[in-house]
Write a structure and sequence with these properties.
Elements lengths: L21 H29 L2 H5 L10 H9 L3 E16 L4 H7 L1 E16 L8 E4 L2 E7 L2 E7 L5 E7 L9 H19 L2 H20 L5 E7 L12
Amino acid sequence: MGLSFAFTAPSRFNKVEGAIPVGKALQAFFTILTLLILLAVGVALGIALTSGGLLGLLGVNPQPTISAVTVLERVQALAELTTSRYNFSSIVTSERQMPPLLAAIYGDRQILQATGYIDAGVDLGDLSPEDIAITDATLTLTLPGAALTTCALDETATRIIERDSGIFAPDAPTLDGDARRFALAQFRDQALESGILQEAEDEARAVITALLLGTNPALERVDIAFSEAATRVLPETCE
């Protein structure tokens, strides 16, 4: 709708047929101007919300960022990450070595059904910012190599199933304890030979990668390497 204005000198003001009074014309003009401004603001907000939010409209980078400190806090929250467990069961026979004739008199024989487990994982407690590198959207993380964390017998399933002692057999208070330690040592060695440390590193890599990608939208890729320890220190339960 167009606007029509008619002006004459004040002393010679004449009403023009069909003309809109000045007051109403100005009111209509400002109403349309206000509507146009509101429309422009609405369009701008719509564009901002679909391409970065209000922060984008204000000139602030809306993209999330990732820092080494943030990564360190999130990874260290996992503490000692146990990622692999091997379960074992075995029969351990313990007896004094002596001729059969003497064994019937002085011998001591025990059969132990041993059931236990070996755990391995990655200790994240000593991780430092120097172990973290961020390039564009790629994070590179260097972790300590996997190590055994626990070697234990399941006391609810471990039991002596047979014990034979000669008539004059001397007391053997360490026989049961020695058999248990022997069983744990066998379980530990078998777990190491079966690749429990490699499996623990593979599982730790999967868990930490999923954690970092899931909590840091700015990341597109996570590369994890494991350092080789000069010597692997066994926990007390695995010695």
